[in-house]
Amino acid sequence: MQIYLKNLQTVTRNLLSHSFKNQVCCHRFQRCFQTGKVSYSQFNALRHHITSQKKLSSVVVSQIIRRTGTAAGNVVPEITPHAQKIVGRWLLTCAGMCVGAVILGGITRLTESGLSMVDWKLFKDMKPPRSQQEWVEEFERYKQYPEYQFSGKEMTLTEFKFIYYMEWGHRMWGRGVGLVYALPAIYFWKKGWLTRAMKPRVLVFGALIGFQGFLGWYMVKSGLQDQPESTDVPRVSQYRLASHLGSALLLYTLFLWNGLSHVLPQVKVPEFRQLKMVRGMSHGLMATVFITALSGAFVAGLDAGLTYNTWPLMADRWIPTDLWAISPKWKNMFENATTVQFNHRYLAESTILLIGGFWFMCRKFPLPPRARMAVNCLFGMALLQGTLGVLTLLYFVPTHLAATHQSGSVALLSFATWFAHEMKKMPK
User: Nearest 5°: CA angle at 21, between 15 and 22?
Assistant: First the structure.
């Protein structure tokens, strides 16, 4: 903004040789931009006032407007509402692609397909084996790694093709996310449809997509190595799995938030005494849902959902006896399947209670209709997600229930994000 103000001051000084009225107009123009509080209607009135002065040419006024109009993003709308809607729909499409990646990744893990592709090549991986000879060679490569050797069973080529295509589909979807993001981003940037605030975000989003792809391979690589103990089940590192899922959820949340900012007209929230507290709690609930979902990644990474399949007690106890079986104690939080399941259970139950209490509290506040709908959806989804979690546990983690439960966590995060977005402050 300092650059634009300096340009404004330079042009203004060039106009001070005019009459006193013109000097007053220029100084009024400058003060409005320095405060940054001028509205679009006020700006139009001020522009009309300046152009009405006979001694100011329209060329000079256009020069002032062009050089200073972007000093405050809400003063001169350089992007049409139609273009803004298109950019918003693109961001929401990218958010939907992230949801698809999370769901497909969960199914890939549940079907134990994630380690079927033992190499990672950006372009060569895009073509799966076609001939019988290529499939046999790929299968032989898979046999050299711990997952096949540990299973101790004879896998047919047809069974291998199934798990291979699951992992291949997940990787291709990830590349699809990159293409759906990158190509429109370049186009919108060149067309000038991205605001000054969006341009650095677009670069950050692109970097996160690339980092997400790296984390995916880094995670798979951990499952292709020999396990510390010969009796350990070959699986990817739960730390890397949580990082991979966490970055995907973060990217999804950023896409969703910015997409909503482009497509939804913001409604002013009526002022009430607890408004600041509600806004703070809405972001707190977002963080709580995110952390609970992240704890689920540790459950998935350790197959901890198969440890205690009773609810609400764990083997007739509220606190199981092997909660701190590993030394040092802190490792139990991330490497003890009992402790990991215990944490996820009580985090989930606490999240549902928090959302329920928040929903009950919001009933007495004068929320706009859209915000009211968002908090109602948030509470309903919390109850559904809790039910899905209990059923997944009691039925020994069947694939369809577990995948639905993971998808439910994304839906719950979506409603929490939507409500927080509805409650954000309107720019002055």
Answer: 20
256 by Cβ neighbours in 10 Å (0-12 / 13-18 / 19+) ranks as buried
Tens digit of each residue's pLDDT (9 = 90 or more) over 330-364? 999 999 999 999 999 999 999 999 999 999 999 99
**Cα separation, 9 vs 19, whole angstroms:** 17
How far is the C-alpha of 208 from the C-alpha of 177, rounded, in Å?
Answer: 11
Residue type, position 79, single letter: I
Tens-digit pLDDT profile for residues 190-206? 999 999 999 999 999 99
Please enumerate in sequence order all residues whose Cβ is within 8 A of that of 57, keeping only pairs 6 or more positions apart, or say none: none
Cα torsion 16, 20, 23, 24 to 10°: value is 170
List the structure tokens of 110. 């549940």
* Percent of the chain whose pLDDT exceeds 90: 70
Residues in CB range of 310: below 8 A, 6 or more apart? 316, 393, 394
Token readout for 75 is 């003063």
How far is it, in rounded angstroms, from Cα 355 to Cα 373? 14
**Mean pLDDT, residues 146-169 taken together:** 88
51, 65 contact by CB (below 8 A): no
Nearest alpha-carbon partner for 173 in 221, 102, 229, 232: 102
Considering the chain, what is the average pLDDT of its residues? Answer: 85
> Amino acid identity, residue 268?
K
Q: Is the pLDDT of residue 329 over 70?
A: yes
List of residues 6+ apart from 162 with CB closer than 8 A: 111, 113
DSSP secondary structure, 290-348, as one string: HHHHHHHHHHHHTTGGGT---SSSSSS-SS-TTTT-SSSGGGHHHH-HHHHHHHHHHHH
Tokens read off for 83: 């273009």
Q: Which amino acid is at 292?
A: T
